[in-house]
Design a protein that fits this description.
Oligomer: single chain
Helix content: 55-70%
Largest sheet: none
Number of strands: 0
Order of helices and strands: HH
Radius of gyration: 9 Å
Number of helices: 2
């Protein structure tokens, strides 16, 4: 995965959830969000 700031990572994760993107992509973003100890507000 290319390097992203925390803000971009959370935004990409939220967009992927809202757009119902590929489940593998959502899962990869979710893993990275949790690795960094972030918590997106609208997680489902």
């Amino acid at each position: 995965m290319k390097i992203m700031s925390n803000e971009l990572l959370v935004a990409a994760y939220r967009d992927a959830l809202n757009n119902r993107d590929d489940k593998e992509w959502i899962n990869a973003l979710k893993i990275e969000v949790r690795k960094r100890g972030l918590s997106p507000k609208n997680e489902k």
